[in-house]
Amino acid sequence: MTRAHPPSVHKGATCTPVGTLHGPPWRHTEDMRLLDRAGGGLAVRADLLGDIHPAVLRDHMSGELIYSLRTTGSGGVYAGSTEQRERRLLAAAKRYDLVELEIGRDTTPAILAAIPPHHRLLAWYGPSTTSTSLTALLARFSQMAGIPARHYSLTTHAATAEQALAPLRLLHKLNRTNVTAFSVGETGPCGRLLAPWLGAPMVYGRIGGRTDEVPSINRLLRDYPFPAVPQVRHLFGLAGRSVAGSFSPRLHNRAYRALGYPGLYLPIPTTDFLSTWRTFADGLAALGFPLVGGTIEAPYKEAALRLAEVASGAAARAGAANVLVRTESGWRAHTTDPIGVVGALGRAGIQLTGRKAAVVGCGGAGRGAAAGLLRFGVTPTLVNRGQDRGGRAARLLGLDYVPLHRFTPEDYSLIVHATPVREDLVFSLGQLPRDTILVDLAYGRRPTALVDAARRLRLRVIDGWEVLRIVAARQFRLMTGRSMPNFPAPEHLR
């Protein structure tokens, strides 16, 4: 089958990162300065913040300022009268570089006469009940294009991966450089970040507010190549239920840039892994961006193994996979969990010989860690809260299993914590000997409860960041055939 080719992106192409301000500007000066250094613009949510005079923002922002008075029907909170709205929009047009006008509601003769086309950002927000097919979006844009504007924006609500692809198909069909289109919803982040490679002139990140659907401007600029839009020939995905906190995109995308490799690594949050992965693989290839590999987070590692036509010996033994690589015959499954723990221990100079080990958590990561220890001569005991999963893992690997409520941590000199729990202690550390080694696979914006408690007790700890660096480097090698540069830990994890 002949693949479609994406619109040509000339060498040195850029898009404008736009931070959407959801909180008082004085609380977010650092993010605004970061955005300004990237040549970005700032969209002010006046429906949330009120009418902020641009002079307040100019100390931190030299880029374009966008005024947005989003209504309740468009995902905002403005519910005032038509007359009040018109007065605010017209006043903003005198001070802001662009004013967001909602199609239909704001495109009245009076407003259009007062706000010239070069100050207009014409926007449409499609509710979840609105059809998101390519045909429907083309018809919607045809209606919008009849009104001259500097920028056009279409935002759909996607309940499925197929719906999340529709805005990308629209961009591919239009092949214009003044239209931004993406979806919000579960699978939306992937399309939002890919849209600039299909001609979208803007990519949005939030400043303030709390949601995993929209990346923060900090993550947008640190994890992805923006404002540059470098050539991309290979897409890689990070699939899981909640992937917004992962540092994998930062590691992989920084490595692509350092090596000049034409890759892009994108998040694919989903609650239906098999359907989403297959839909994106087919849909993105049709747009000229083949999905050639990816990393898989819990709880989809077993499903990833089932998806693959071929599996590595390590993945087959663990009964789970966290890497998928496209080959001529289909997907090949691998697991890097075994090398993560033993590699991090080895890098820290910790000898495994003679240690009595336990692995707490019997999901894909725990089984992989146990398999890795076995390969290096350590026979761990498996520990799990649920007996069904614990017993199954023990039978699969030929290891002993202990229910969590009967687990005695002080009996072990090496403990690997492989559950997703970050904020609470899964087991007590009070009686552990000082020479106990703890490995915590979880990581986040701040140290986990286990790492905090262990450090207070002055125990030796290998945190999730150290394991991630080993795992990510192996994943990078499997997916690209290249070696990943060794990057330092993010500042807040040092």
UniProtKB/TrEMBL annotation:
Family annotation (SUPFAM superfamilies): Aldolase, Aminoacid dehydrogenase-like, N-terminal domain, NAD(P)-binding Rossmann-fold domains
Keyword Amino-acid biosynthesis attached: yes
Shikimate dehydrogenase substrate binding N-terminal domain mapped to chain residues: 239-324
Pfam families: DHquinase_I, Shikimate_dh_N
Span list, region Disordered: 1-24
Keywords, in A-Z order: Amino-acid biosynthesis, Aromatic amino acid biosynthesis
Pathway: Metabolic intermediate biosynthesis; chorismate biosynthesis; chorismate from D-erythrose 4-phosphate and phosphoenolpyruvate: step 4/7
Keyword Amino-acid biosynthesis among UniProt keywords: yes
UniProt-recorded name of the protein: Shikimate dehydrogenase / 3-dehydroquinate dehydratase
